[in-house]
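User: Hey, quick favor. My workstation is busy. Could you predict this chain's structure for me?
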Amino acid sequence: MGTFWVDAESLFETARHGVLSGSPDCDLAVLIGDRGGIQMLEAAGWTMPGLVAHYGAQTAYRITRERGSVRLEGRSRSETCVLKSVAPAEIAHDLLAGCLPPAYARHPSQPALLAERAATHRSKAETWATFA
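Assistant: No problem, here it is.
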C-alpha cells in the first residue's frame, strides 16, 4: 500500500479518535508539497482543486469532522479517495427507525407511544436478527 493510502487511513483514524474524545468540529486541510513539506490549515471556503492549485500541493487531504461524523477527501496527482464514518447517533436513529412503522418513526414527540408501539411491533431478538 502506498504512502497516499497509509496517510489517508492514519489521518482518518486520528479524526475519528478526535470525535470519540469530544474534540470540536473542524474542517482542516493537510497539504504535502513536492519536497515533502507539510502544511495544515483551515479548509473552510476552499475546494480541493483550489487548495491544490493555490498551495502547489502534490497531495492534499481535507478532513471534516461535524456532529460526530468524519469525512476525509484525499487527492494526489494519480489517486483520489473519500472515507466516511457515520455518527453513532445517526446509526442509532436508523436502527430505531427500522424497528418502528413509518408513521410512528416520524413522531418522536410522543416517546411513550413510540416505546409502547416498538415493544408490540417487533421484539429485540427479531430486530437484531435482521442485522445478523
